[in-house]
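Usage

Read records sequentially. Each one opens with the input sequence:
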Amino acid sequence: KLSSREPTVDGAGMGLFADESVSAGRRLIEYTGRVLTLKETRLLPDRSYLKMVSFNRHIDGSGARSSAARFINDNMDKSRMNSRFVTVAGKRVFVEALREIAADEELFVDYGRAHWILSSHSGFLGLERIQSPRSAIDSQMDGRNVPAQQGGMRTTVALDTYALVCMYESDVISTDSHQSLGQELRVSSVGGCRIEANCEIVPNPFIPSTTMVRAVRPIAAGDELVLPPPLATLQ
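and closes with the structure output:
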């Protein structure tokens, strides 16, 4: 038997607890909710409760009819993970005990990096918009020539070299209101921005046909994220 209560980790709304001792390997609860395609998930205002089953099958656990599995937390400490998600027949997802769990112990799972990328429009926790001048040439990305504008993005956490920062572009994002924050990054250019590029655009290892922004060197918390200019502007 499980119940939702005040969590033992800061910043979480609720937590999922075992009301009785549980043996290792036992399936505790199924993660249920609306089944959505990848494209449908990109139009959700809140993707915090999404569980990816496969590339084009996702469970939205935010609804009132969803199971209490949506309350299980990731405490970011792998040594304390006592449960895991198990996919069955490519359609259903269960929470399974990794070890013996004591009564009144909170359940924790590793959400996985794919969850954090899919669950927010930025694709990464720790980004914020800033106001900084951008020249017209800075705004030319991949052949797109858009008017000069104010803006940019910076990280609120330190990033290591090759850290995946956020989504950049996706063929499943079809409306302007759901564009990735990665496309708001400033671009280093010959005649405009003099800040050295500290990021690059790379294929998304989690979602085919999409791209991500990746750090090319260590980036300190508070630093602006800057992409290199497209090749066309250097010719």
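Summary fields computed downstream for this record:
- The chain has two domains: 2-111, 125-130+151-234.
- Residues 2-111 form a domain with the Beta-clip-like fold (CATH 2.170.270.10).
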